[in-house]
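User: We ran a pulldown and think these components assemble together. Before we commit to crystallization trials, I'd like a predicted model of the whole complex to look at. Sequences follow.
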Amino acid sequence: MIRLLPRSRGDRVRWGVVLVLFLFAALIPPLAGLDENLNPDASSRFQIFLGTSALVLALWAISYNLMLGYTGMVSFAHAAYYGVGAYTVALIFKRYHLPILVGLAAAPFAAAVVGVVTGLVAQRAVRLYFSLLTLAISQLLFSLAFSWYDFTGGDNGISVTLPDQLSDYTTLYYFTAAIVGVCLLLMFLLVRSPFGAALLAIRENRQRAAAIGINVKVYELAIYTIASLFAGMAGGLFMLYQQQAYPEMLYWTANAQPVVVSLLGGTGTFLGPAVGAFIYVVLDNAVSKQFPYQFDIILGAIVLGVVLAVPGGISDAPTVFLRLRERFHRGEKAEAAPAESSGEAIRLFDVRKALATDAIQAEEVHPGQTLLQIDHLSRRFGGLRAVEDVSLEVKQGDRHAIIGPNGAGKSTLFNLITGQLKPTSGTVKFDGRDITGKAPHVIARTGIGRAFQITTIFPKLTVRQNLQFAMLAHAGYTVRPIGFANRIFYAEAQELAEAVGLGAWADLPAGQLSHGDQRAIEIAISLALGSKLVLLDEPTAGMSAYETDKAMELVRRLATERHLTLLFCEHDMSVVFSTARTVTVMHQGRVLTEGTPEQIRRDPDVQKVYLGELEQEELGA
Amino acid sequence: MTPGQVLLFAVGGLANAAYLFIVAAGLSLVFGALRVINMAHGSLYMIAAFVTVVIGNQLGASLGFWGGMLLAVAVAGAIGGVVEVLVLRRVYGREHLVQLLGTYAVSLIIAGAVRIVFGANYRTIVSPIPGHIDLGGYSYASYSLFMIGAAIAIGGGVWAMLYRTNLGRNIRAAVADPDLLNATGVNVTRLYTTVFMIGAALAGLGGSIVAPSQAVGSSIDTDVLVLAFAISVIGGLGSITGSAVGALIVGMVISFGLVIPATNPFALAFVFIIMTAVLIVRPRGLFGLPES
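Assistant: Here's a predicted model for the assembly, 913 residues in total across the polymer chains.
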């Protein structure tokens, strides 16, 4: 389903900037020549040289931003892959006496191989510890380049000589520009593809990404490797105009350059770092020659300013400008449409329409058959038996509630079912498949959707993208590195957004919506995933009485009309008794009893459990 | 290697471990309480080293060093306070990315400022405790033994501060639940500033103590930072015991790695191999606390 997106004013400005940028890059050599003619002091060769270095820096920084901006990973090893690219060219030329272009062709792949191996190691940790592991890897590679004197030349580095065809500055510039251009195009297609959508989802919310079926670790390793591939290419091109590889290229502080350049240009945009690279080279040349130490201070001030004040970097400036102008104009026209949602989605939720949406056609259901089978499931934390020998059966089409006092093990049980925790013993079978101890993304793919206790969506993505990305993940499209993710399932996601009453806010970042509406998005994500079983962890927590009624009415209607199977835990007994058909009571990690709401209501043991808790609370108070 | 040589290199390793422990303990203390990795920690170390050398040499003779050290620690602590108020306060609770980049920016600014104020040349100061002790045919610099003793004393001091004072009790409570601590009437904002200043002062103390035994130049900030990271990661961020164990491992690996001809070029590489291995087996380090 291809559909052209409406172009906003912001888009037009952005494409204009892109065009100017490309024209400028293409015209650098003639402009430098003109400058030399008019100004006897200027050297066109030097300016073209600076232009070449800006191109290479742009490629390097954009490859860094694939991780920093698109996936939210901070790596201290990226300079090492850049260095590996440069050393590949140098070593193939010097040690194996092959032409420099052979080395250039091999550079990205050498860097990618080193990247995938070291990336596997770094992935053992997440976030901060991941960053520190990349630091160790970077220093290891640096030590190798620095100390393996016989092979790498140690601190002297290795130099190469260019073939005659490339020794002309202008030719070298256009040669570099062509390769950088192709690399940028490839990276651009990648970040806009369904694969890129998976990366954005991971950056936004790792837990939710896994819950829509994305294998977070694999995607992170993939982008880490791809980023090192392009860093290797940049390092190879560096050899063409510098003709020298040296160990300091790999030292961890060398990562400052792509980081500063990305921040300077804007990590939230694709070409931002390219703008940053040109500004950096100009600044570097103007300031650092006379005032090398002041340059460090300027860089530090820029990074600090960007980090503390403008998280988007200067490429965000046009958007900021447009937003200001929009606000100014709106101020003139009395009151514009309300920009904020107010929990209306639940009321507007159109179940019939939601279920008619093509993308989410459910499979046939057989009410009464066992869908989820839990046998003797236990989980201990040290000496604490959070879940102890729990056996439970959830029938297709049922609305099954799990109740119990705080600490009864309800959330732990949910986490064991959806794979956030691994059981100590026991089995979980879903739809005939053994899913015991499987990873969350695998379990999500078998058809178990989950709404978390704390609302878990992709806050900075639009409401439509939240649903679109879930559909992409469900269809298995996120492995595709080509195609425009925003155009796939656009209409279906819009339709679903309208059906759940969020049509008017489809273009708003999901995080701006009210609590109740965010809950509606979560349920819609479960629908978009075509889940057969939906786990709701305290679905009405934090809702007003009105919202609670509406939300549960929605849940009941969904379950009835779609034969959707529900498993939920809830503290509000009126919600439980009005919604559930089967109730399981848990107490201290064990199943106390199970029955229809009527049976449970009359059960003296259940009353004792809740009464006992009450007494304890009274005593405690 | 004779037993005498082993002892010699072991003492060398202990001396390395001594100053590295002081620096890493500051890094770890700040991480434990504030959950921020301070990329400018090495910069505070470098400032203190320069202040010690420059002021110490101005004051002259051996007494000058102690004056320089006092001033250096005060300067490092004060700069730490300014950084905490101006930068750190705005990044608590934000993504690690923002914290890393924010403190990294501070390190760039300090690096530039240090080079403007002190220049790019290496500087040295004579040891305030000259002489050496001869034992089994080898001589041991008295100053190395002083460093080892000082590190043990500082380690004990930090432990006593954490477990025997009101301040320490508040710091440990802040690690567990800052909001609750705030609700009990403790000014957590001021507590964080205090902790960060103590961490900065420890970085300064490390830089000051190391000055007589190494040349002081404008790249020692990143050199020490990367070792302090390695130590904190091996021992576990947030744990003072971990810092001590990590510093011992790193100090010994460097000392023995450098003297064995076969491993000499790769002594530093071993540190990072150990760091990688520990993180793979125990992602939180040997004594690390889980991330809250």
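Chain B has a mean pLDDT of 89. That may be worth checking against your pulldown data before setting up trials.

User: Thanks, that helps.
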